[in-house]
Amino acid sequence: MQEKVNRITSLIEKFLEEKLSAEDEMELNAWLAEAEQNDSFFKQITNKNELREKLRIYGNADSEAIWKKTLQKIDGGAKLVDLYPEKKTVRMPIGKIVAAAASIILLISVGTWYFTTQYTSNQTASTDKKNNGPTSRIVPGSNKATLTLADGKSIILNAVQNGNLAEQGHVQVTKTDGRLIYNKKPDSDGSASANELFNTITTPRGGEYQITLPDGSKVWLNAASSLRFPLAFAGNERIVELTGEAYFEVNPQTQPGTKQQKGQITKTPFIVKINTPAGNKNEVEVLGTHFNVMAYTDEGAIRTTLVEGKVKVTSGNSFQTIRPGEQAKQGAGNISVQNVDAEDVIAWTSGFIPVGGHDLDYTMRQIARWYDVEIDYQGKKPEISFQGKLPREASIDNVIKLLNVNNIKARLNEKERKIIVTS
Question: What ranges make up the beta strands (E) of 149-289?
Fold first, then answer.
C-alpha cells in the first residue's frame, strides 16, 4: 500500500512541476480513469488555492504527527522515520522549505485519500452485495469456466466450492481459489492408462481460469478459450490442444525409460496443438519454458510469444525457433518473427488488458472478450493506437472514460451490450 501512495504522490508532484514524461502521463491518466474518486481527488489536490491553504495550515500544525498516524493507517507494520532529525539543524532557503512542505502535504493528502477510499470502497462493495448488486449489467470478467470430465460430465467451476471435484482413474481433481489442480492419488500405482482419458476446460467470454496439469505445468487460460489435455502424460511427448489464448509455464520433465548419458538429460517435449477452422498443422514445441499463445480465430494470425527459454513453432511444413522477447506469427503456412515487449503481451495474467503499442482494433477485441460486449464502428474506423494500461478490474464506465482520454470517441449502449466507436 505504501508503495502505491508514494507512486501516486510522485506522479502528482511531477504534474504540478510540469515534469511529467510521456510514460508518467499515461500512468497518471490510467489511474485517473480507474475510479471517479481518483479524478475528483486529483482536481482538488492540484487546485493552487487549495494547496496554498494547506501550506498555511501546515505551518501551524504538527505535520509529523499527522503523517505518522496516516502511515499507520495505510500500513500498520510500516517503519516510521522522523521527518526532522533531532541532533542536526540545517538552514534551508525559503523556496526549498515551501517545496519540501508542499511535498509533505501531498504525501499526507494522498495517504489520507488512499486509506479513506480503500475503507469506503470496501464498505460500499459490501453494502452493494447485500442490497442492490452491481449497478451495471456489464461487469469485468472473473474466474469462470466449465470442466468436462472424461465421462462427459460437466462441472461449472464458478458454481462449486473449493475441494475435491472428481476422481478419474488414479487422478484426483481439486479446486482451490480459482485454480484447478491435477494430482496422482496417494494410493495410485500409476498403472491405469490415464493418458487415454481426456479433460477439457472451457472459459466463456468474460472468464479466465488457472490449471496445474498432471505434470506440474501451469496454464493461465484467457477468456473465450479451451484446453484439452490427458489425465496423465505418457510416452516421449506431452500434448495438449488449445483454442483461444493461454500462458504456459512448462515444468521440465525427464523422458521416461531413456538411458541418460553422463552430463546429458533427455527432456520430454511439451507440445501445444492449435486448433484452427482451416485445419492447418500449427504447433508450439518446448522442453521447459514460459510462453504465451494467442490463437483466436478473429485475430488473423496465431501469435506465440516467448518470455523465457526456447520454443519451436511449426505451421504446415515451415518451422522457426524463437528466443525470449520474440513473437512468431503463424498464418497460411508462413511464419514471421519480430521483437515484442513480452511482459506487455502477458499483462493479462497479472490484471491488465495488453493494449500498449497496438492498433485500436486489437485493443477493442481484447476489451470485447473480457467484458463480453460487441464493438460497433460507426463511420471510418479511427487510426489511433491506445497508450497506457487498462486494468482488467475497471468498470465498463471507466473503460469508456479511458478510451476517450486517449482520443478514442466511444460510448456505451448497455442494453445491447455494445461499445460504439465513432471517427
Answer: 154-156, 163-168, 171-175, 179-184, 198-203, 207-212, 218-221, 225-230, 238-249, 270-274, 282-286
Number of domains the chain contains: 3
What is the DSSP track for 298-336? GGSSEEEEEEES-EEEEETTEEEEE-TTEEEEEETTEEE
What is the spatial distance between Cα 34 and Cα 42, in angstroms, rounded to a whole number?
12
If we measure between CA atoms, which residue out of 360, 366, 292, 364 comes closest to residue 329?
Answer: 292
Q: What is the DSSP string of 44-70?
A: HHT-HHHHHHHHHHHTTS-HHHHHHHH
pLDDT at 288: 75
- For residue 209, give the C-alpha cell: 481460469
How far apart are alpha carbons 362 and 227 in whole angstroms? 23
13 and 29 inside one domain: yes
Please determine, for residue 156, whether its predicted confidence score (pLDDT) is greater than 80: yes
Assess contact for 294 and 327: CB atoms under 8 A.
Answer: no
Q: What is the pTM assigned to this prediction? A: 0.68
Query: Would 403 be classed as within a structural domain?
Result: yes
Does 388 lie in the same domain as 341? no
pLDDT of residue 230: 93
What is the rounded average pLDDT of the residues 86-103? Answer: 42
